[in-house]
Design a protein that fits this description.
Layout: H1 5-17, H2 31-34, E1 43-47, H3 56-74, E2 81-85, H4 88-96, E3 102-106, H5 107-113, E4 119-125, H6 126-129, E5 135-140, E6 155-159, H7 161-177, H8 183-186, E7 189-193, H9 196-204, E8 210-214, H10 215-224, H11 226-231, E9 232-237, E10 244-249, H12 254-265, H13 271-279, E11 285-287, H14 294-313
Parallel strand pairs: 1-2, 1-3, 6-7, 6-8
Antiparallel strand pairs: 3-10, 4-10, 4-11, 5-8, 5-9
Helix pairs in contact: 1-3, 7-14
């Protein structure tokens, strides 16, 4: 199984972020200045939820190869360690124990734990902060479905909540806006699709009435098959919803933290960085802005409000 673009990008980003910043012109600190602040063991932790399309064993093997190269590049005696967290509770505990130098996790997981642990959201890929992270509800143009309520008694596809939890929350919000809380009483069938591309093609070939996928996945499919653009339509779309975030624990030394962020911000200026961004269609790494979380925070608030409101009607 080939690693997904976000997964490979995350691996490469971590590798380059932790290269000695002395190799980057104008770096805030020299390699010598960082010698005293780099921990004896550099641990890079990430949630398995950001690479849910990949077998964890394949992910572990790939990460171990990269961390071996990372250690060689850094010139440290102890090889950096990669830790895959299969649940948020374990990741939270590792941060509390000061066992991690960098953490990558989903935005929704960050919002769940940020009050319990000191994590500073630092950088994101530009695509994670833009419209590619919108979710869209798609149908065929000739299906007669024009608004959400037209989906009553129809079949809808989603990706597994392990892959796209936020899309499930958004669907529930769309339902509750119509005064419905139970999917089973509204849809004829709600099914999970293995991938966004398969969900899109199922709607295209009339195997399902509708699907929820990311706008990025829809645009990619339209590029590969222009007929998708002419045959499918968007019935509803979410606000931009943050994807994954790379965070640095507040316990990490400020010099090291600033050097990591600096390397990320200038990644697109290096030859290797340009190759990575070109290969994976990423413009650059950008500094995290609190406003990037506005969409998902608002969605969670509306979900909680409508859930309470709908429960009172029973």
């Amino acid at each position: 199984m080939k690693p997904s673009r976000p997964f490979i990008y995350t691996i490469m980003l971590w590798v380059i972020l932790l290269l000695p910043t002395a190799t980057l012109g104008g770096a805030p600190f020299s390699g010598a200045e960082l010698d005293n602040v780099i921990p004896k063991v550099v641990r890079v932790g990430f949630s398995t939820r950001i690479l849910s399309d990949i077998d964890p064993r394949d992910a572990q093997a790939a990460m171990e190869l990269w961390t071996k190269e990372l250690g060689r590049s850094m010139g440290i005696k102890t090889q950096p360690q990669t830790v895959i967290f299969r649940n948020t509770a374990d990741l939270l505990e590792a941060v509390k124990k000061r066992e991690l130098t960098i953490v990558s996790l989903t935005a929704i997981d960050y919002l769940k734990i940020h009050d319990e642990v000191g994590l500073t959201p630092s950088v994101v890929s530009k695509s994670n902060a833009g419209t590619a992270r919108q979710f869209v509800l798609i149908t065929r143009r000739d299906s007669g479905i024009r608004i959400f309520n037209d989906l009553r008694g129809r079949t809808i596809l989603l990706l597994s909540p392990k892959k796209q939890e936020v899309s499930h929350i958004w669907l529930d919000v769309l339902l509750m806006r119509e005064g419905k809380r139970d999917r089973a009483s509204f849809f004829r069938q709600v099914k999970e699709s293995p991938s966004a591309s398969q969900a899109i093609m199922a709607v295209f070939f009339r195997q399902a009435d509708a699907a929820i996928v990311s706008r990025g996945a829809l645009e990619a499919s339209k590029t590969l098959n222009p007929q998708i653009g002419s045959q499918l339509s968007v019935v509803a779309e979410s606000k931009p919803l943050m994807g994954d975030i790379t965070c640095i624990p507040i316990t990490v030394d400020e010099k090291l933290k600033r050097s990591i962020v600096y390397a990320a911000m200038h990644l697109h200026e290096s030859t290797v960085g340009k190759q990575i961004f070109t290969l994976f269609h990423i413009d650059r790494t950008i500094l995290f802005q609190p406003s990037y979380l506005d969409g998902i925070s608002e969605l969670l608030r509306e979900h909680a409000y409508l859930k309470t409101k709908t429960a009172k009607r029973k």
